[in-house]
Design a protein that fits this description.
- The structure is a homotetramer.
- In chain A, helix 3 packs across helix 4 and helix 6 (about 190-200) packs across helix 7 (about 215-225).
- Chain A has helices at about 10-25, 45-50, 105-120, 145-155, 170-175, 190-200, 215-225, 255-260, 270-275, 280-290, 315-330; strands at about 1-5, 25-30, 35-40, 60-65, 85, 90, 95-100, 125, 160-165, 180-185, 205, 230-235, 265-270, 295-300.
- Chain A has 2 domains: about 1-65, Alpha-Beta Plaits; about 85-330, Aldolase class I (TIM Barrel, Alpha-Beta Barrel).
- Helices cover about 35% and strands about 20% of the residues of chain A.
- Chain A is α/β, with parallel strands linked by helices.
- The interface of B and D includes residues 34 and 36 of B.
- Chains A, B, C, D: Pfam families: DAHP_snth_FXD, DAHP_synth_1.
- Chains A, B, C, D: It comes from Acetivibrio mesophilus.
C-alpha cells in the first residue's frame, strides 16, 4: 500500500500517518519527493479495510499494490483449477459446451431440446426454474416444478444440470437438483447468496455483473471460496456500455485477463451478451479462439414460443451446425471440443 | 408497440406477424413504406412479454411506445406521492435530510452522532446493521445488535430510522426496527427482496443500481408497488461511468427525469456518489437547487475510525455548517428545509 | 512515479530497472515487500513519456504520483484564473450567462434573439457558424456569412461573441470575429486545433469531450496554455454513459473536482447535456448551486424552425423567466448574477 | 419515422404535426392508441434533419425506422466492398495483417522491423509520422521525415503503407506517401478531416472513436464515401468502458454487427485495445475466428526504447510465432492468411 500525502501536508501530519501505520503492524518507508511525500506500507492490506488512513489530515490518496483477493488469485495457487462435474472437467483441455433453453416451460419441449443438444455434443444442460426478470409482469419461472423437469431431462439424457438460484431461501432446494448452481449477473454482489452457495459442495457458475469490474468479479468468487467451496466457474456474459447495437458488449478480453489474474476457469455466454441469435455463431467461435474454457448457449426448439429471451435462442439445427463448426476452431488453438 | 419488418420481409411473413398480433388481442395498423413495412399494434404491452414476436421470420425489431411500468409512472397517478414516516413527509414542500454513519459500530459513538445530526436539523437517522461489502474480509455489520443500537438512538433523539436489508430472510427483523427499509444499489434488481419489502407496510428507500437505467429503476419500484406497498422513495447515488475522479458519477439529471416520468419522491446521496467528503457540500446544494426532495448524508463523529466509508463522512461540525448553508438554497427554489 | 515489479521479478530485473531510472536522472527508493518489490522514482514524470520502463522484464505496472499537467493544475498557480473578455470576467464572483441559438440561420432571427437574451441579462452571445454534425446531410453552418451576422448582433447589442472553430485552416478567420473561440466536444483531442488556438490571444471555451476524463480535459487545456494562451474556460456539457433518458449525462461533480485540481473557471452547458429544453431549468439552477462560474444556454426565438438542436432550445420568454429564478440561487451560494 | 404524441396531446396538436409532415412531403399514417396517438411518416428521413418536428407542442418523441446512413449501409449495396491496395485485397477471403511500430523513430530500426514483419507474412506496414498524443510534452512524430522513412521501407520491402493524418492541412502531403490514409480514433468525428480524405482517391482506414456507437462510426464512413471515396476500411480498436484491466474494451461483437449493417470491410487492432502485448495473441486469434477481415498489430524491434506505446508492441519473434498460430485459426473459419 502506498499512502500519497498531499502537497501541503505538514511534517506532523506525515509523522502521524506513519505512526498509525506502525501501530497497525505495517512496516513503513517514507519517500520525500520534490513536491509530495509518499509512504510505502508493507503488511496485510486486509488490516486496512477496518481502519481509515485515508481520512487522516494531509492524506491525498491510497494506492493499493497487492490484489484484494487471495483465494481467487494466483498468489497462493498457480495451477489452473479444474472443476469436475461427474465426468465433465471444466478448465481442462476440452472446451465444454453448456446448452438449453433460458427458462423451462414444459416437460415435453424441454426434454426434446435436451436430447437435441446432447446429440450435438453439449455436456451440460441449462435451464431456468427461478428467473430474475426486469418486469414483475413477466414470466418468473416454474420454480420447483421446473427443477423436476430438469431432473427428468437429466435422467433421459445423462447431461449434467446448471440452473440459477435467486434467493438465499432456495439454495438448499436448488442444490438438491442442480449439478452446478448458477449465480446470475444481477446477483453477483448479493453477498449473502454468495456465502450461502459457498457453504454447499456444488460447483458454482458465477456470472459477471453487468457493470462489475474483473476485480469485483474475482472478489465475488473470493466470497464463495472463502466459505469453503473452491469450485467456481466464471462466466462472462457481456457488460453494459453506451453501445446499443447489441444487448450488452461482450468483453472478450476478460478471457486473457482472467487467465492472467486467476486460476479459475472461464466460460462465455454469447447468447445473453448479444441478445440476438444472429451473433451467437461468430462470438462462440471468437470465444474459443480467444481461450475460453467453455460456452453457455441458449437453444430452444420453439424460440418463437419461448416465455423469455426467445430472440437470442438458436434452434437445434443451427446449434448442431455451430457445434460442427466450433470443432476446427478448438483444434486450431490446441484444444478439443 | 411498433413491429419493424426487415427490408426483405415477404408478404407472407408480414401477414403472419399481423395474424399473430390479432390472435393475441391486439389491433393492428400496417404501414407500407418505400423500403420497409411496419406494423402498429395497439393493446397491452404486458401480453407481449410472454410471446415472442421478435423471433418471427422477417421481423427486424420491436419499438415499444408505452412505458413498461404502470404503477410507478404518471399514466395512472398524476399527483406526487408523499411518503409519510410519522410526522415526516418525504415528497412535500420541505426538503428532508437523512444523516448518520454508514455502519453502526458502537452505541456511544452512534448515539452521539445521532444527537448532533438531530440538533443540526436532520429528520431521519441512517445507519447500517447489515452491510454489503465488496470484500469478504471487510466489516459486515453488527446485524441485530446494530438494529438495537439504532432503536436506542431513536428513543433518545426522536429521529426516524432508515436502514438496509440485504437478505430476504431478514426482512421481518429489519422491518420490526426500521421506519424506512433501505434497498441498496447492489440489490436493486434482487427481485425476491423487492417483493418481500413490497409485502410489508414500511416505506422503502430504493437506491438506484450503479448501472441501472432510470427505466429499470422505476421497474424495480414497480415490483414493490405491485405487491401492495406504494411508499417508495427513490434515491440517486451515482452511476458507474468511465470517470475515476469521483467514486461514481452523480446523475443529477435523474432528478428532473424522475419528476417527469414518475410521481414518486426522489432524494440524493452525495456521499456515496462522490466517495469523498470534500464534494458533499457542493453536490448537496446542487441537488436541492435541481429539485431533490431530500438528501441522505454520511456523518460520523470519528470518521478516521469508521469501519467503512470513513472517507466520505462529514464530521458533525461540517454537517452543521452545511445544514445552515442549505437553507437559503432551498428557499431560493421555493422550498423549506 | 512508483514502479511495481511483479511477484516473480528477479534481483537482476529489479537492479536493471533501478539502473535505468538512475540513468534517466531519477532518484530511486526500492521497497522490498513480502511478496512484491516496488521502486519509488523521484524526478520529472515528463522524462518518462519518452522512455519505456513499463516494458522492461519483471515490471508489472507504473503508478504515477504527480499529475501529468503542470500549467492547468494548481501546483504552480494557486489563485483562480479570471478570464476577462472586455468588461466581462469569467471566474470571478459574478456568474456569467452565455446564451443564443445553436446555429446561425438568418440575420433577422439571430439579432432578435440576441436582443432578447441581452435584455434578460446574458453577457455573452453564442452562435455556430461552423457546425460539426454527425450526418453529412445535416446543415453544416453558414461559415463566414454566419460570423458576419454575429458581428452585426454584437454591434447592435454590445454582447461579446463565443463561436466554434472546427478546422485549423479557419482559426485566423474565426479569431478575427470571435471574442471567445469555442473548441467543441468532438475536437477536444484535436491536438493540432488546440495548438492553433493556443497561439492566438483570444480566450478559449474548451468543451469536455463526451468520453473524456477530467484528467484528459485538463491535458487538453495544457496544450492550449503551453502554447502561450492562459485564458481557458472549461465547459462541462455531459458525458456519454449507458443512460438514454437524457442525451448525455451531465457530470455535475466535475465542478468541484475541477475547482480542486485546477485554477481555471468552469461553466456548464445544460442544453447539450440534457438534449431537451424541459430539463434546462433545473440543471441550470443545480449548476449554480454546485459552484459553476457560468452557464451556456441555447435560446432560439423559433425553436421549431431551428436548423439544428431546436429541441434543446428555450424560447426567449422561458429564458427570461429562468434568469429571474437563477438570481436567488446565485445569491444563496454567495455569488451574484 | 414514427412521431409519438404525448398522452395529453390535443386533436389540434396532432393535426398540426400531421399537416407539417405533409407540407414536408411525407405521407402520414396516424394510429390512435388507447392512451397515445402515433403518426407514421413515410419519406426521406434526411429532410427531417433540417426541420424540427420534435419541438412542436404535444410531441413526445421521434422514433427513426430507417438507418441514417445510405452509402455505408446495405440498403443500396449488398455485395461486400473489397478495398484493393495494389495487389492486396482487404475484405476478400484472405485475412490481411498490417503490422509495424506505433511511431517512426529512426530509419534503421524502422526498416529492420519492416523486413521482419514482411518475412512473417504481413502485407501492409504501419507507422505514425504524425502522432496525436494526450500530453503536449510527449513525442509528436517526425512528420514528413517520418513519411520519407516509410517510403524507404516500402522500397526495401514492397509492403504497402498505412499512416495517420491528423490535420486537414497535411492531407495532401500524407496522401502523397501513404497507400492507405488512417483516421485515428480521436479524429473519427473531425468532420472536416473526413471530407478532406473523402476527396482523395486513397483508401482510408477509419478507426472507431473510443466512445462512438457503431451507427456514428458508419456515419463517419458516410462522410468519406459521400465525398466520392468508396474505399473505407473500418477498424475496431476498443471502446471506453468502466473496466480498467485493459486500456480499452475491445468490442468483438462489432465485427458481426458491421457485417450485418454494412458492406465495408472491418479489421481489428488488438494492440491499442488491450494496451499490453500480453493480450494481443489471444485477441488476434479471437478476432479472426469472429470474422475480422484483417488485423493491425504493433510490432517493434526494441519496444523498451519505443517513444510511444512500447508496452503494447510485440517483438518481431513473438509476431512471427503469432502469424504461424493465426493461420490454422483462419483456415478453421474458411479463410486463408
Amino acid at each position: 500500500m502506498i499512502i500519497v500525502m498531499n502537497q501541503n501536508a505538514t511534517k506532523e501530519q506525515i509523522d502521524s500517518v506513519e505512526k498509525k501505520l506502525l501501530d497497525l503492524g505495517f512496516k513503513t518507508h517514507p519517500i520525500v519527493g520534490d513536491v509530495k511525500t509518499i509512504i510505502g506500507a508493507i503488511g496485510d492490506r486486509r488490516l486496512l479495510n477496518t481502519h481509515s488512513i485515508s481520512t487522516m489530515p494531509g492524506v491525498e490518496s491510497l494506492v493499493p499494490i497487492m490484489k484484494p483477493y487471495k483465494l481467487a488469485g494466483k498468489e497462493l495457487k498457480h495451477d489452473p483449477t479444474i472443476v469436475t462435474v461427474g465426468d465433465v472437467r471444466v478448465g481442462d483441455n476440452e472446451v465444454i459446451v453448456m446448452a438449453g433453453p433460458c427458462a423451462i416451460e414444459n416437460e415435453e419441449i424441454y426434454v426434446e431440446t435436451a436430447k437435441r443438444v446432447k446429440a450435438a455434443g453439449a455436456k451440460i444442460l441449462r435451464g431456468g426454474a427461478f428467473k430474475p426478470r426486469t418486469s414483475p409482469y413477466a414470466f418468473q419461472g416454474l420454480e420447483e416444478d421446473g427443477l423436476k423437469i430438469m431432473a427428468t431431462a437429466r435422467e433421459v439424457t445423462g447431461l449434467k444440470l446448471v440452473t440459477e438460484v435467486v434467493d438465499t431461501r432456495d439454495v438448499d432446494l436448488v442444490a438438491s437438483y442442480a449439478d452446478i448452481i448458477q449465480i446470475g449477473a444481477r446477483n453477483m454482489q448479493n453477498f449473502r447468496l454468495l456465502k450461502e452457495v459457498g457453504m454447499h459442495k456444488k460447483p458454482v457458475l458465477l456470472k459477471r455483473g453487468v457493470s462489475a469490474t474483473i476485480e469485483e468479479w474475482l472478489m465475488a468468487a473470493e466470497y464463495i471460496i472463502s466459505e469453503g467451496n473452491p469450485d467456481v466457474i466464471l462466466c462472462e456474459r457481456g457488460i453494459r456500455t453506451f453501445e446499443t447495437a447489441t444487448r450488452n458488449t461482450i468483453d472478450m478480453s476478460a478471457i486473457p485477463v482472467v487467465k492472467e489474474l486467476s486460476h479459475l476457469p472461464i466460460v462465455l455466454d454469447p447468447s445473453h451478451a448479444a441478445g440476438t441469435w444472429k451473433y451467437v455463431d461468430p462470438l462462440a467461435k471468437g470465444a474459443i479462439a480467444t481461450g475460453a474454457d467453455g460456452l453457455i448457449i441458449e437453444v430452444h426448439s420453439q424460440p418463437d414460443c419461448a416465455l423469455c429471451d426467445g430472440q437470442q435462442s438458436l434452434i437445434p439445427s443451427r446449434f448442431e451446425q455451430l457445434m460442427k463448426e466450433l470443432e476446427p476452431v478448438a483444434l486450431a488453438v490446441g484444444r478439443k471440443l
